[in-house]
Design goal:
The complex is a heterodimer of chains A (438) and B (190). In chain A, 11% of the residues lie in helices and 37% in strands. Chain A is built from 4 helices and 30 strands. In chain A, a hairpin with a 2-residue loop joins strand 29 and strand 30. By secondary structure, chain B is mainly alpha-helical. Helix content of chain B is 37%, strand content 5%. Chain B has a 3-stranded antiparallel β-sheet. In chain B, strand 2 and strand 3 form a beta hairpin. In chain B, helix 2 runs antiparallel to helix 3, helix 2 packs antiparallel against helix 6 and helix 3 packs antiparallel against helix 5. The longest helix of chain B has 17 residues. Chain B starts with a strand and ends with a helix. The C terminus of chain B is likely disordered. Classes of the chains: A mainly beta (438), B mainly alpha (190). Chains A and B meet through strand 5, strand 6, strand 9, helix 3 and strand 21 of A and helix 2 of B.
Amino acid sequence: MNVRVPAFALTPKGESSYHRSGKAIVLTTGSANIGESADCDVRYPAGDLPPEYYASIIRDAERQRWLLVRRSQHVGISIEGKGDIGYACGLGSGDVIRFEGQQMALLFQEHVKRDAWQVRLWALLTIACGLLLLAGLWALAGRRSDPIGIDDVTPLEASLYIIKADSVKQLLTARGEDTLLRPTKVLTAEAPTGTAFMTTDGVLVTARHCVEYWIGTALNLTQRFSRLADDDIVKWAIEAETFNQAQHTDSTMQLRVYFSIYDFMGEPKYTFSTADPRVHINTAHDGIFQLADFNSDYYWRTIRPYFQDSQMELGDIMWIDGFDEKGQIALATDADFLSLAKGSRLMICGYPITNASTRQATFSEGVIKHEPQPAAENLVFESNINHGFSGGPVLTKTSGAIVAVGVVSRVDSVSSGIFKHAVPTSEIKIKEGGQDYD
Amino acid sequence: MIESLRLHHIAGYCPEEAIWKMIIDLCESVSGQTGVPLLSPESILVDADIFLVDVQQKKVPEFLPPECHGDDSTLTSQQFVWSLGACVYYASSGRTLFGGHGGSYQRSYPHVALPVLQKKHQALTPVVQRCLQSEPSARIGVKELLEIAKKEHTRCRTTQRQHIASHIVAPPPSRHDCTGWPEEMTDIGN
């Protein structure tokens, strides 16, 4: 009996900031999206342009062939030796696909499975080699990614907290003295709430947007500053950034957030402000943009990934050190991140906003969706989580140990699906004295 | 022999420019004829960047206008316009009109709300809605449809990708101090 399952592989020819030449990016029996969007299987850098899908490779089951279908009207697509593809074309093994303006081309290769007896023989040989290889890797690395279940994470509930922003002040700080510029904005209905977790190092970790809730706002960069309402937190943030960008003295303007931490019983445990030296926000990845208000120069600071600068999103993390209390959630090490791969199992913990009066810790299974590149961009995963999980830990299990590899950040809804993003916990920089990394 | 591609292969993926090109090619192919062939995702061929009609394909009831009852082998120009509108909707969304029921649904409910295309194809919505009028005499004519399609196709081809304000790398270009803010920044309550 013949067993033939059609599949294809895409291998880059030339390098991009996301992919290395010669290393297959895609090997799938399904479809693949190619373009600049974060959810594409093959990614190209977008520069300062809005991200686009270039093309998709889909299966024509009726004719038993793979098709390359154009999706952009701006980027030309050609196949070496055949010319422009028009709106769509069939693909054959060995076709090299080129995209206008991009140096990296893609080699398309079809794959099919062998006959059944060959499958068995090769399977036995492969398993034997695989076992030998795994034994070697195990001896070398000593780590692997294991399945993780709810029984693994339920005991961690006591290390989970609710975080809630209470008020915001706009202050001018000069020569160590604060001047309140406006009446304090007390947060009520719009108060963001999220999740925080305590690590085994005594560090409380959460998402930055749980406190600086404007930092990921999708600000229309053509928006006129003068149209913003006076009590709009976005206007305050623009004022502060504009002042700080233009200021050549030692005075700064800031938005200071006062927030509370509640334990899993709902009891208030701690209160902080973002001015507290124990509170750390990594602003190294922040993007600062000039607004298109032609009367004056205004600036906006954000972590929203404009222009597919995915590194900006790594700024959506905040941690507080100096606690005597130690939690039960260990942060992942570099070796733990090496064990992560597309398909790795996860458990995500948080306090979803399903009931305004009661908050209950919830644990949701998940899986890594895209091959992780922790130093370059967020972890992308699938899980049934919603509002309130922000700031919660993304847990995995390596060599029997539960570790936090990420902090829940945002949800990205695109045409190919709904993806969740988590900031890798490698962004947390813990040193003696809690130095902030600006 | 390489099998030709058809509209159903690329439906849902098409950029706006491709759909306008489809309208142009199909309108030009029937211009001046009295009876036009049936249109459906299976009968529209895609040959590189040209769209053609395969006259040998069978009719698909969901892509027949509401006034047709399935026994027609060719269409009038008004009926063609409706079928083309249905194919444009299909090309944009990958779905058949009216929840898959097509023209028969509009025959039962002549005042059904006409579809609005997805945001990246929003320029096509007014044209599609003029094509899909249940009253044949209210539909857009082939000539006017062709003129609009040519104009929009040229717009798509010549419009560059829009750059957005870029990341600041240089020092701020202007100098303000606390007392020198623009009036609109200090005028609370304005």
